Amino acid sequence: MLVVLVAALGVAFVFVPWILAGVGSGGGFDDEPDLRDAVRESFVAYWRSGDRDVTPGLDRVVDYWFRFHLVKGAISALMLGVLIALGIIVWKAFVRADALGAGKRAALVSAGVVVSLGAVFSLAALMANVQGLVAPLSSLMPMLMSGGKADPALTSTLGQVRGQLAASPGAGGHSPALDLLIDDFARYHAAMAVTAATVLAVFIALSVALWRRFARTDRSGRRARRVLASFGALTVLLSLALIVVTVANTYTAGHSAPALQAFFNGSW
């Protein structure tokens, strides 16, 4: 049942957000190229308005992207929970596999590794969607820079954005629209910093618990000790990665203007 549920959630993760995000007053988009075109067109109109408040066209796209991340984040959370439950079952079966042959034990290990990696992927997806949920406008910005046909209006707009970002912040060269982009970019990275720090705290606590249980487990329980040591090492490695993510995003949130400049210059 859990395997079928994981498969169903995997399919839902790919297709359902595009459908459910379109439910609402603003409607949806036919596909990703259609969304990308809407992002580019509405961003050009917003930049030309010169106002800090987003235009109705860009607001519609941002609202859609907010709903998209909300649905995708919910699916990611469900998949993470199911994979954790499935992983516990598989690894417990491996620990108790005294009567099984080497082939079946190897199959359990393989299944456990796949499920564990899936859980890590689901966690990363959940974190990314929380970030996009907090700052959907910044989450849309990569669509300005990738794919699609050359657009003179967009090229001109991006040139103006780069020109203002290159100017000194104290020189009064930033438009209200650019100030909003800088603030949202800071919020985008602050969201990831907080999310990563929260997950880091959980992993540190989990790592301590795993290694304590490893130390208390009798040496005769070799498979149990292997599982505990493996997950203990994994949580340590993931904690180190999360430290890097937390520090990098905290720094970027505090230096959002140069970071946004690097993004628009294609070096981010």
Write the SSE topology.
Layout: H1 2-20, H2 32-49, H3 56-95, H4 102-134, H5 136-140, H6 142-145, H7 152-166, H8 176-216, H9 222-254, H10 256-264
Organism: Actinomadura decatromicini
Protein name: Tat (Twin-arginine translocation) pathway signal sequence
Transmembrane segments: 74-94, 106-128, 188-211, 227-248
Task: Provide a descriptive summary of the structure in words.
This protein has 268 residues and is mostly helical. The protein folds into two domains: 1-157, no CATH class; 173-267. 81% of the residues lie in helices and 0% in strands. It contains ten helices and no strands. The longest helix has 41 residues, at 176-216. The model has no long low-confidence stretch (mean pLDDT 91). This is Tat (Twin-arginine translocation) pathway signal sequence. The chain crosses the membrane at residues 74-94, 106-128, 188-211, 227-248.
Written as H for each helix and E for each strand, in order along the chain, the element string is HHHHHHHHHH
Structural class: mainly alpha
In what range is the share of β-strand residues?
A: under 5%
Average residue-wise pLDDT: 91
Number of domains: 2
The helix fraction, in percent, is over 70%
- Rg, rounded, reads 23 Å
The total count of helices amounts to: 10
Protein name: Tat (Twin-arginine translocation) pathway signal sequence
Keywords: Membrane, Transmembrane, Transmembrane helix
Transmembrane segments: 74-94, 106-128, 188-211, 227-248
